[in-house]
Write a structure and sequence with these properties.
Chain A: It catalyses: NAD(+) + H2O = ADP-D-ribose + nicotinamide + H(+). The structure holds two protein chains of two kinds. Chain A has one domain: ADP Ribosyl Cyclase, Chain A, domain 1. Chain A is built from ten helices and six strands, in the order H-E-H-H-H-E-H-H-E-H-E-H-E-H-E-H. A four-stranded parallel beta sheet of chain A has the order 2-4-5-6, sandwiched between helices. Chain A has a two-stranded antiparallel ribbon with strand order 1-3. The longest helix of chain A is centred in the N-terminal third of the chain and has 28 residues. Chain B is of the alpha/beta class. Chain B has one domain: Rossmann fold, CATH 3.40.50.720. Chain B has nine helices and seven strands, in the order E-H-H-H-E-H-E-H-E-H-E-H-E-H-E-H. Chain B has a five-stranded parallel beta sheet with strand order 3-2-5-6-7, with helices on both faces. A two-stranded antiparallel sheet of chain B has the order 1-4. In chain B, helix 2 runs antiparallel to helix 3. The two termini of chain B are 38 Å apart. The interface between A and B is large, with 54 and 51 residues.
């Protein structure tokens, strides 16, 4: 018989000249590789950190914000002003955070803070409201020593929020501890600024009798039309309730110049108030507060006395 | 109200044979009951102090500090000893800036005003373990677990009560950590004497001052405006204090009515003759003044 070897028919030529066994192996290896790649990709996608908070130019939410406001609420309602002992601090804390969590920190509105403001409503006695502008340290030292007058920061809500920063993020239920909008460089309708505008407005609206304001006679614009005092408080005093605004203008003790009460910006304030039917009185270097300034410079000539 | 127990002098042990104190409304003890929401106030104050007032204390673990503190809330209210607060103190203690310590008796409000929230001085109530407990009260019920919100024992009820033991421990630690010039503010108008010979300062602060870390002691005897000068430097109980410090080997000096503090007192008495300022004050009205 003739040696007839079968030759592969040209149409059935196998790939790459390898045996069937090797083909199977390759397929399996390839398949596994695909599976591994898919697994890795899925793994990366799943473990990728959630979208970061937005980045702003101002400092972030104060560390331990919630514990601080809760602690302050209880200290205020149980110790500082026990007549407010009925206030529910848990509810108040929640209302505060609900005002800004999961929201765009540049689109804050006064409505956001309405529930919080309702829960923290408080009556300040007539003649005891003390406003201020550019005298932060001095006015609060005075309010502490003297204990009868109320600055906004001596009311429950002001006390809770004083010195703190907060903001949320529409993409997250958490507070943004990394950064919060800066009023000037990011946006003016930020959570913190809107809060202070809202509470300042209410503070002014609730005032009655004689309202006092502590101003700084040693700065350029003693009455500054861009200040919260000017923009919000002066305009929200109710003339039917507030008959007089008395200004105490304090000058830096080391540099007592002329009569600050005659200053142009003060005249402007007087004009604004008279248009609203509110009497304006002004006193330079109100004595009790002058004493407070003297504590820092006891040897100064204007602090010399019979003591 | 003050830091309960802080200003009260440690009277001699009143024997247990005394009839139970009849507090207001038949309460068991003479002192105020546990402050409501104690834990929240505690944690809030701790958080605030460590993050806002002293950022360098950011590592303080307020939860751990609370856990260390609350062990006393399970103890019999007459069996709480200073050392029960040992862990609490060791977790919450921190250094006190040199020359900034301010001790006092009988003038809590004046001291806190003058200290200016730790900017000028750092009295005990401006140290973390002092700030946390200031104006608070706490104790377990006498015969049951759970806090007593009605009343808590004072030193007249029993010596080893939770609040007094806290302040004893805090005072001792405060003393130990004070360095440089030590200041003491006393009330020279206090009828019982400016320096209580049995009191927190006498019993729990002076003995723990570290002589090798102290340069000198400055005593300010302040007299309330318009009130009698009961004692001044070198007189009465102040003399006793001076002699004691001398015996202990401390350098000291005593000043009556330290001027900056006196000026602070005048804030509330600006029209009193003792507070008359001279004419360069720049005070008073202007053409705009209408009253």
């Amino acid at each position: 018989m003739a040696d007839h070897r079968f030759r592969p028919v040209s149409g059935e030529k196998p790939c790459c000249d390898i045996s069937k066994k090797a083909q199977i192996c390759l397929c399996v290896v390839f398949g596994l590789l695909v599976v591994v790649i898919i697994a890795v990709v899925v793994g990366i996608v799943m473990s990728r950190p959630p979208p970061q908070h937005q980045e702003w130019k101002g400092a972030g939410t104060t560390a331990h914000f919630y514990e601080i406001i809760l602690g302050r609420c209880y200290t205020y309602t149980q110790i500082v002003r026990p007549e407010l002992g009925h206030k529910d601090c848990q509810k108040i804390g929640k209302a505060f955070t609900n005002a800004f969590l999961s929201k765009d920190p540049c689109s804050s509105t006064e409505q956001d803070y309405q529930p919080l403001m309702e829960l923290t409503n408080q009556t300040v006695p007539c003649d005891k409201t003390l406003l201020w502008s550019k005298t932060n340290e001095l006015v609060h030292e005075y309010a502490w020593v003297q204990q009868e007058l109320f600055t906004l920061e001596n009311t429950l809500l002001g006390y809770m929020a004083d010195g703190l920063r907060w903001c949320g993020d529409p993409g997250s239920p958490e507070m943004n501890y990394q950064s919060c909008p800066d009023r000037r460089t990011d946006c003016s309708n930020n959570s913190v600024s809107v809060f202070w505008n809202a509470v300042s407005k209410r503070f002014a609206e609730d005032a009655c009798g004689v309202v006092h304001v502590l101003l700084n006679g040693s700065v350029h614009n003693t009455f500054d039309e861009r200040s919260t005092f000017a923009r919000v408080e002066v305009f929200n005093l109710h003339p039917e309730k507030v008959h007089t605004l008395q200004a105490w203008v304090m000058q830096d003790i080391r540099n007592i110049s002329s009569d600050s009460c005659s200053d142009a910006s003060i005249k402007n304030l007087k004009l604004i108030l008279s248009k609203r039917n509110i009497t304006f009185t002004c006193e330079n270097n109100y004595r009790p507060i002058r004493f407070l300034q003297c504590v820092k410079y006891p040897e100064h000539s204007s602090c010399r006395s019979k003591i | 109200m003050a830091a309960l127990g802080r200003a009260s002098s440690l009277l001699s042990l009143l024997p247990l044979l005394l009839v139970p104190a009849a507090g207001a409304g038949g309460a068991r003890w003479r002192g105020e009951g546990t402050s409501p929401h104690l834990r929240s106030i505690f944690l809030g104050r701790c958080a605030e102090y460590s993050s806002l007032l002293s950022p360098e204390l950011r590592d303080k673990n307020c939860t751990a500090i609370w856990e260390a503190f609350k062990v006393v809330l399970d103890k019999d209210p007459c069996s709480v000893f200073p050392l029960d607060y040992d862990l609490f103190i060791s977790l919450s203690r921190h250094s006190i800036p040199r020359d900034k310590s301010l001790f006092w008796e009988n003038n809590h409000l004046l001291v806190t005003s003058y200290a200016e929230n730790a900017r000028r001085f750092m009295p005990l109530c401006d140290v973390l373990y002092g700030r946390i407990g200031d104006f608070l009260s706490w104790c377990r019920q006498e015969n049951a677990s759970g806090l007593d919100y009605q009343s808590c024992p004072t030193s007249e009820d029993c010596e080893n009560n939770p609040v007094d033991s806290y302040w004893k421990m805090a005072s001792m630690q405060y003393s130990r950590d004070s360095t440089g010039v030590i200041h003491v503010m006393l009330n020279g108008s206090e009828p019982k004497g400016a320096y209580p010979v049995k009191g927190f300062f006498a019993d729990f602060e002076i003995p723990y001052l570290q002589k090798d870390k102290i340069t000198r002691i400055e005593i300010w005897v302040m007299h309330e405006i318009g009130r009698p000068k009961v004692e001044s430097c070198g007189e009465g109980s102040v003399k006793i204090l001076e002699e004691r410090l001398e015996k202990m080997g401390f350098q000291y000096r005593c000043i009556n009515d330290h001027l900056p503090v006196k000026l602070l007192m005048c804030v509330d008495h600006s029209t009193h003759p003792d507070c008359a300022l001279n004419s360069t004050c720049g005070c008073g009205g202007s053409p705009v003044l209408l009253h």
